[in-house]
């Protein structure tokens, strides 16, 4: 019985350890269509769409901040001062939660009896759902207009930029 208890404990510990892992989310261009990072598309001369795909388990606030940071970078690169978010939406993909199954059974055949115990686990290797934040924005010059949809590009860059995790150096 001690072996069975140890097996159950080991299975539970493994599931918890692996479920706590998350796919690293770096502030970088996305390498492919489903890759972690940002994508951008110019819609009109001063209108853009930015999408940031987080890794599995990345916090929603981090994904949203990285989308805003990329919008600020584009705005500053274009020589503008502020941007207004005109549309914003998010999505969640994958990341079903982990589970543990424990089953047991017994049978009696005259003088003989048997007992069985089974343990099964399942967990996502990515650490949770992958979140995507997309936003459309327009850029502008001069003093930032009042309103919650307007962002000072330099302010966003100075606040969020230092928190953005750069990708690790490539090993070659």
Layout of strands and helices, then pairs:
Layout: H1 2-19, E1 37-44, E2 47-53, H2 60-77, E3 82-93, E4 99-109, E5 112-122, E6 130-140, E7 150-152, H3 153-160
Helix pairs in contact: 2-3
Task: Provide an overview of this structure.
The protein has 172 residues and is an alpha+beta fold. The protein has three helices and seven strands, in the order αββαβββββα. The protein has helices spanning 2-19, 60-77, 153-160; strands at residues 37-44, 47-53, 82-93, 99-109, 112-122, 130-140, 150-152. Helix 2 packs across helix 3. The radius of gyration is 24 Å and the shape is elongated. The model is unreliable at 6-20 (pLDDT under 50).
The computed structural class is alpha+beta
Shape: elongated
What strand line-up does the widest sheet have? 1-2-6-3-7
Number of DSSP helices? Answer: 3
Please outline the major beta sheet. Answer: 5 strands, antiparallel
Number of strands: 7
Query: Uncertain regions: pLDDT < 50 for 5+ in a row?
Result: 6-20
End-to-end CA span: 50 Å
Strand content: 35-45%
Instruction: Return Rg in Å.
Output: 24 Å
**Could you estimate the helical fraction of the residues in percent?**
25-40%
Order of helices and strands: HEEHEEEEEH
Question: Mean pLDDT score, rounded?
Answer: 81
């Amino acid at each position: 019985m001690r072996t069975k208890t140890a097996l159950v404990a080991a299975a539970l510990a493994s599931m918890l350890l692996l479920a706590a892992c998350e796919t690293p989310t770096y502030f970088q261009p996305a390498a492919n269509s489903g890759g972690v990072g940002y994508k951008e598309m110019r819609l009109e001369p001063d209108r853009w769409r930015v999408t940031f795909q987080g890794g599995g388990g990345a916090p929603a606030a981090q994904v949203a901040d990285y989308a805003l940071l990329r919008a600020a970078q584009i705005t500053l690169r274009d020589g503008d001062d502020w941007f207004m978010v005109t549309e914003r939406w998010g999505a969640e993909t994958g990341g079903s939660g982990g589970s543990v199954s424990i089953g047991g059974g017994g049978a009696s055949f005259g003088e003989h009896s048997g007992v069985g115990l089974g343990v099964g686990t399942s967990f996502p290797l990515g650490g949770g759902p992958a979140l995507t934040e997309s936003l459309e924005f327009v850029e502008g010059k001069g003093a930032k207009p009042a309103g919650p949809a307007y962002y000072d590009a330099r302010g966003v860059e100075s606040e969020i930029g230092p928190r953005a995790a750069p990708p690790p150096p490539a090993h070659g």
